[in-house]
Amino acid sequence: MARYSAVIQSVSDPASTFGYLSRFDRAVEWDPGVAEAEMLTSEPIARGSRFRLVARFVGRSVPLEYEVVEFRAPERLVLHAETGLINSTDTITFEPDGSGTVVTYDAVLDGKGLARLADPLLALAFRRIGDRAVAGLRARLSQSVSR
Question: For the residues 45-49, what does the mean pLDDT come to?
Answer without folding.
Answer: 98
